[in-house]
Amino acid sequence: RLPPLRAGRGRGGGGSLVADVGLEPHHGGQLIVKELDTSDFDSVRSFTADMKESFSELHVLVNNAGTNGKDASTPQLSKQGRDYVFETNFVGHFLLTLCLEGMLRRARGRVVNLSSVMHHWGTKDVTRTLKSARRKNSYRDSKLAMLHFTAEISRRWKGDVAAIAVNPGFVSSDIWRGVSRQGVKGWLFDRFLSFLALCPAEGCATSVVAAAMQLNSKEEGKAGGGQASRKKEIQRTRHECLYLVPYVLPAGIRLPFEVMGPFMHPRWATPRLPAGEVEISSRFWEMCEEVTGMKG
């Protein structure tokens, strides 16, 4: 059986995770660390080939690699010659998930996709995001793409693999490393993070709950554990996309309450997906299959 596995661009960072687990005196588990760069299709294929050779099943896949492109060292284009941010945040995860489809189906597993409140401002027709090498709005488009991907997994792999999208919230994490901390603007940004942003532990809560909650096929799913176990059934919408947020949305009002606020435990919300989502998601899936070489 596959133990917890952390895949990332640098083995060094993963090593610190292994050390942290080792510090827990009563922790009887283990953590495997492997190298994976979702911006590089060769890296994704090498990683998944190793996974399939070593293990037969995968119970939970959390697709959470990401960059906002604000670091000066971030490349503009991926190894494949397309937008680096969109490739890292979405297309690489699409390839990763499809390569591991058999393992997920055998385990009747689930996929957790990291989206963001920024999906509200994504390109209305997400299929257009694959038609140009560089895009100004690639970050927000990648987060909207994750929602279309989640909805389409729920339809195409229904009965075998569950899919849940999550908004981690506005988190004070390493994703902001590219923002300058110099001068007054830097000082103000630090104060902004300290007062309004969630800490990393709160930011990972939606992912952990989505990965560990019990799902009921009849009800489509209930949030499990703590306050979430007392929540009502998932709101049924015209979309197939299940979506967790860490904030309270009064009367279901998404903006501005989904942008930031006090941590209130993961709860269900309705993502903003366009009219014609089913057709768009299906066409987008097929286009992504062609881009990643997974067609047929």
TrEMBL record:
The source's domain of life comes to Eukaryota
Question: Which UniProt key words apply to this protein?
Answer: Oxidoreductase
One GO term in the molecular function aspect is:
oxidoreductase activity
Q: Name one Pfam family in it.
A: adh_short
Kinase is among the record's keywords: no
The UniProt entry's sequence similarity note says: Belongs to the short-chain dehydrogenases/reductases (SDR) family.
**Per its record, how is this protein called by name?**
Uncharacterized protein
Organism placement in taxonomy? Eukaryota, Cryptophyceae, Pyrenomonadales, Geminigeraceae, Guillardia
